[in-house]
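Revision sheet: structure tokens.
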Amino acid sequence: MEKTPGVRKIIQIAHVVKDIEKSMKKYHEILDIGPWSVYTFAPPALRECTFMGKPSDATWVLSLAWVGDIQFELMQPLSGESVYTHFLEEKGEGIHHIKEWVDDCAAAIEEYRKKGIGVIQSGKYDKDEFYYLDTVPQLGILYELGNCGEIRSPERTIP
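Predicted:
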């Protein structure tokens, strides 16, 4: 996937689930989405993780599959408090966020801060950075910014 500098690009739609194994199977059987690349987001690969402005020890497993130019992501929280645990508690399983690939995360975050929109969860995984903006009050969904940095190979691929 390529991105033209300075051009906005939505690259991901994410769904929070209670059981990622069952969800990958359902999406594959019903919509033929896959193969899924599975990753566990936990230290030491996951670093500088924050939630609500404080250091976070949350961990989660996620799986990624491409549907054309859009990455579909399934996320299952494993431990700790996060935007994913709050979503499951408040709404149950469902579409959680959309993600935009940005060239300069710090500059993009500052632009949203000027609009009164702050970051509620963030972290780094290998060379990837991610920032969830508190856009639920305005949009009904979280908006994620990320640099789409290079990450390691998946732990496994299904099917």
